[in-house]
Amino acid sequence: MSPQKYLRYLGLPVLFGTHRTKEIFHINPTAVPEREEAKEIVVTIYDYNAEAIEEQRFDTVTEAFTCKHNNKISWINIDGIRKLDVESISTHFEIHPLLVEDILSMHQRPKMDEVEGVLYCLLNMLYFNSTSRTVETEQISIVLGKDFVISFQEDANRDVFDPIRTKLKMANSKIRQRSADYLLYAMLDIIVDNYFQVMEKLGEQVELVEEEVIRRSNTKSLARINQIRKEMIVLKRNIAPVRDLINGIIRSESDLLDDRTTKYFKDVYDHIIQAYDLSENYRDMMTSMQDLYINNVNLKLNEVMKVMAIVTCLLAPATVIGGIFGMNFEHIPSIHNKWGFFIAVGLMLLIPMWMLWMFRKRGWF
Predict the structure, then answer these.
(1) Half-sphere exposure for 269 (CA within 13 Å, toward CB)
(2) CA distance 86 to 46
(3) Coil, helix or strand for 216?
(4) Backbone dihedral region for residue 311 (phi beyond 0: left; psi -120 to 50: alpha; all else: beta)
(5) In angstroms, rounded to a whole number, what is the distance separating the alpha carbons of residues 15 and 225?
(6) Contact, 117 vs 145, CB < 8 A?
């Protein structure tokens, strides 16, 4: 077996996941973001209407400038964040500088803003890393304008929008029949639905830890409980604000939102409320599991103390008898009796046996 599997537990910070605590809590939204510029970007453009769709892929944002006022609905998806590219396309599509700062920011709280004719949504896509058993986040910014949607993603290798891309290629799909606000709904809906998949994976980890705590409560179990509680914090931090985001869209009177689409956003709102309630249930379960761990540890301690107390009580008669007849006095009763040794040993055995019978009768063990 590989020794590295066990050597990694020698470092206590690694065992208890204290580095994860720093990742979760050491966030200062007022600090200047130290975002690493993407080495390359991928710009994917979907120009579509009810009759046709055209998919194009470029490596510069200038190719997307032609999408403005082309009498089609355009979804411009930009994988990779670079300051100059974001500023360039934002200037062309008249996106306010404050929104540009939000797009370039890091560790922002999910929110919705409506500024100068565009509707802006910022939230996180969630993924579950099965290797490290942690919840990973990817910030995504979505800008809704007149007949266009621009999405800015950090990671070019993964997202949750493949079902949307599939539906766009279907001529009879609702996305092709509706306006750009329906595309925004579809994107938010699939992001929220993916939260349930992440919670399902995390729920499997909760079940495994629960079984481990019931079978054997040890330091490793406590470390796993602590780790999952941290992941619950990540879930709640990303899910709870999305309620306000969706509610803000529902209450918005923007001309970019069709009245027919409002009922779809209400459906997303119901989903995010359900996701939030489920995350709260998970958190309560982890709190109960921590109490179960403490109770199991105390129960084991009580069992050990009970065994030690019984052994001490059973040895007490032998200790007393041996102590009495082992004193250095000149005259001790029966000291010269040839049966004295056997009588003393017999008492040392009979009295503990009688004590065991009494303990059992009273139900002490």
Answers:
(1) 15
(2) 19
(3) coil
(4) alpha
(5) 12
(6) yes
Whether residue 238 contacts residue 126, with contact meaning beta carbons closer than 8 Å, is answered with: yes
Q: CATH code for 4-296?
A: 3.30.460.20
Domain range annotation of the chain: 4-296, 304-361
Task: Give the pLDDT of the chain (365 residues) as one tens digit per residue.
Answer: 454 444 444 444 444 556 677 666 666 656 655 677 888 899 999 999 888 899 999 988 888 888 887 888 999 999 999 999 999 999 999 999 999 999 998 888 899 999 888 999 999 999 999 888 889 999 999 999 988 999 999 887 888 999 999 999 988 889 998 999 999 999 999 999 999 999 999 988 888 888 888 887 777 888 888 888 888 888 989 999 999 999 999 998 888 998 888 899 999 999 999 999 998 998 888 888 888 888 888 888 888 888 888 888 888 888 888 887 777 777 777 777 777 778 888 888 888 888 888 888 887 77
Q: DSSP secondary-structure letter at 229? A: H
Topology alike, domains 4-296 and 304-361:
no
What's the CATH class of domain 304-361?
A: mainly alpha
Q: Cβ contacts of residue 316 below 8 Å, gap of 6+?
A: none
Alpha carbon distance 149, 168 (integer Å): 14
Cα separation, 236 vs 88, in Å, equals: 34
With H, G, I as helix, E, B as strand and everything else as coil, classify residue 161. coil
Residue 63's Cα: distance from chain center in Å?
38
**Beta partners for 73?**
48
Report the distance separating Cα 118 and Cα 91, nearest Å. Answer: 13
Please check whether residue 79 is in contact with residue 161, taking contact to mean a CB–CB distance below 8 angstroms: no
Q: Using CA atoms, how far apart are residues 324 and 12, in angstroms rounded to an integer? A: 52
